[in-house]
Write a structure and sequence with these properties.
The chain has helices at residues 5-44, 49-63, 67-77, 87-112, 116-124, 129-159, 171-182, 185-213. It is mostly helical.
């Protein structure tokens, strides 16, 4: 039985519907993870131990454990404590929390890479530490964050395929269901891979334009 793209074209609308859910999930996770990650990254740089050490612990635990295990703990583990999240909410929570840990380290590294003279210049103009961070340091750090953030977001989109293990019928799960019904796994999986590739190329192009504009 050879490879037949006709099966892919025939089921492309169903795959695209799964891809829409993947995009929705990934965009929300990226947005939440970016905001939360910046906050944790700033806490990681805090001089106060009560703020710094919880941030370090969070980053260490999340980055040191697989996303798949985190998804299982959220979807299958939390109901044992009375918190029953649906597949979409559980998937979004797991992906956003995972992304935040990596964004936090990107934020920390970018801020620390800014020359200390910039802090002194901000202070000399009468800006408070928070104002200096907001108006002087962070805008410069943001430009340096774009390339690693782009890599992280691309990895997150690819990792979204893991949510198929917690009953989320996104792109990967849709391809698996179609393959089970048609007995054509190669066509469906290759088709899903091509759609993932297209999504990541679009994201990469968008981030490149943002980086050039900044």
């Amino acid at each position: 039985m050879g490879f037949d793209f006709a099966y892919f074209w025939e089921n492309l609308p169903r795959l695209l519907r799964g891809a829409v859910l993947t995009v929705e999930l990934s965009v929300l996770a990226i947005a939440i993870g970016f905001v939360l990650g910046n906050m944790i990254g700033l806490l990681r740089l805090s001089k106060f131990a009560l703020l710094r050490y919880p941030a370090i612990a969070y980053i260490t635990i999340i980055r040191g454990t697989p996303l798949l295990v985190q998804l299982f703990l959220i979807y299958y583990g939390l109901p044992q404590f009375g918190l029953d999240l649906g597949p979409f909410t559980a998937a979004l929570t797991g992906m956003a929390l995972n992304d935040a840990a990596y964004v936090a380290e990107i934020t920390r590294g970018a801020i620390q890479s800014i020359d200390k003279g910039q802090w002194e210049a901000a202070k000399a103009t009468g800006l408070s530490p928070w104002q200096g961070l907001r108006h002087v340091i962070f805008p410069q750090a943001l430009k340096r964050m774009i390339p690693p953030l782009g890599n992280e977001f691309i990895l997150l989109i690819k990792s979204s395929s893991l949510v198929s293990t917690i009953a989320m019928v996104e792109l990967t799960r849709t391809a698996q269901l179609i393959a089970s019904a048609t007995f054509r796994p190669m066509e469906m999986l290759v088709g899903a891979a091509l759609i993932y590739l297209a999504m990541n190329l679009i994201l990469q192009s968008t981030l490149s334009r943002v980086e050039a504009r900044l």
